[in-house]
Sequence to fold (324 residues):
Amino acid sequence: MIGTTEKERAGLNRTLILSEEDRTRLRGQLATSDITQREANLDRIFHADMLDIVGRLPAHCADLIILDPPYNLDKSFGSVKFRRGTRDEYAQWILTWLPSLLRTLKPSGSVYFCGDWRSGSAIEAACEEHLIVRNRVTWEREKGRGASANWKNASEDIWFFTASNDYFFDVEAVKLKKKVIAPYTDQNGKPKDWEDGYRLTHPSNLWTDITVPFWSMPENTDHPTQKPEKLIAKLLLASSRPGDVVLDPFLGSGTSAVVSRKLDRRFIGIEIEEEFALLALRRLELAQYDRGVQGYSEGTFWERNSAPVQPKKKRSDGDGGLFQ
Ligand SMILES: C[S@@+](CC[C@H](N)C(=O)[O-])C[C@H]1O[C@@H](n2cnc3c(N)ncnc32)[C@H](O)[C@@H]1O
Fold:
């Protein structure tokens, strides 16, 4: 157990924690290793080592694979400890599971692979033999420890790969609403491509509109490296259609499963640490009542600090936009 209930928390802290009752109830919903046909594995969270599962999933069952494994750092995920190795050791580790994982990907499928600057060259080296490299998105995470003799490490990368040249990408679904800096008008004084001071822009490979989950956000858990729902929502909306299957073999606190549910995708999640797998199930329960993704409303992603101008919260928008 990770000790989520024992900590002292501030009054406005909305971090999701599990009670003993939650754990007992949710344990029964965890999938173990009873893999059968495609349908039987969908919308399930396996509490298992991904190495024991991915090779047994049906071939070509996934439209999109989200990879957010331990980065090449010394880091503990509950009882699982990951040790930093050389670039080659990290690339070798990726190659112990990548080929069997890619069996599950459809020929038209896409893969996103998260990493920090130190893991990046190994990720590219390991994956370029098996996939087509399309891009590398840099996410300005902002949060990071200042260094006295180095640049603060405040960004992460998300590598974008596809299995072939026949792939799906919905650019319209991931446009970003940004404040207009140069408010040009036509000869009649009408705004050119903007409305109410905002313009819908093409999404670039530099993402500055997403914060890490903070303790005051309802999506936050005690997982040490939880991804923001807004970030995963961009990946899913760009590279999958409603009903498509999203596979995440390093599920953590379940962000990709939760966002899949909120955006009407199917999912398969695998997580080795029971407490995180249970947190993912709890988040899925809550997603039945709140399908909002903070920073995304009425089909649009909003830049940071635009909450006051975002459309008024609807019940189904959850807590949208407090911080983003
Ligand atoms: C970087 S975190 C993923 C965080 C996740 N994206 C989220 O939003 O919460 C990596 C996760 O992989 C899990 N993990 C590590 N090795 C694993 C393995 N062999 N099989 C399944 N899960 C594993 C860790 O316990 C950790 O929760």
